[in-house]
Amino acid sequence: MKETKRQKLDALEMKCLGSMGDVSRLNRIRNEVVRMRVGVIYELAARADMNVLRGFCSVEKLENGHLLREVTNARDNGRCARGRPRCRWMDGRKKALGDRRINVREAIDLTGNRNSWRAIVTPYCYFTTDVAAIGDSAYEC
């Protein structure tokens, strides 16, 4: 997902969560506090990345002759169009894996172990025990 799309998605999410939590932007409350009040742990963009990586894992678990795996791993040797290259399926996966500091080869090796893959896909978030850290209880990622 491009960074501009991610920012727009975060802005939309906070607008919706603010209306759910009865919080206006004029109140100047931090996003983490609003998420905590509503009960949302992960950002919407983080959940989208989790779904992207879940799809990557399901494709990599397929057997070698499966059509879906062949199509996703295929290479086109034709000429490229002029201008900036478009974001492809694998580029989004590489970005999501890069955010978790893991390369594609290591990710393919880890897809066989369900627990280790789940630990990579799910971002690590925890709730702070210090309620006075930012006024209300919130979480840190």
Could you give the topology of this structure?
Blueprint lengths: L2 H18 L10 H8 L5 H17 L6 H6 L16 H11 L4 H7 L3 H8 L4 E2 L11 E2 L1
Antiparallel strand pairs: 1-2
Helix pairs in contact: 1-2, 3-5
Q: What labels describe this entry?
A:
7 helices; mainly alpha; 2 strands; 141 residues; two-stranded antiparallel sheet
Task: Summarize the structure in words.
This protein has about 140 residues and is mostly helical. The chain has a domain at about 45-75 and about 85-125. Helix content is about 55%, strand content about 5%. The protein is built from seven helices and two strands, in the order αααααααββ. The chain has helices at about 5-20, 30-40, 45-60, 65-70, 90-100, 105-110, 115-120; strands spanning about 125, 140. It has a two-stranded antiparallel sheet with strand order 1-2. The longest helix has 18 residues, at about 5-20. It is globular. Mean pLDDT is about 80; it is low at about 125-130 and about 135-140.
End-to-end separation: 19 Å
- Approximately how much helix is present in the residues? 40-55%
What is the radius of gyration? 19 Å
DSSP summary: helix tally: 7
Q: Unreliable segments (pLDDT under 50, ≥5 consecutive)?
A: 126-132, 134-141
Let me know the number of strands: 2
Give the oligomer, counting copies of the same chain as homo and different chains as hetero: single chain
Beta-strand content estimate: under 5%
Strand order within the widest beta sheet: 1-2
Shape: globular
Q: Kindly name the structural category.
A: mainly alpha
Report the mean per-residue pLDDT as an integer. Answer: 79
Question: Main beta sheet, described?
Answer: 2 strands, antiparallel
What is the N-to-C order of secondary-structure elements (H for helix, E for strand)? HHHHHHHEE
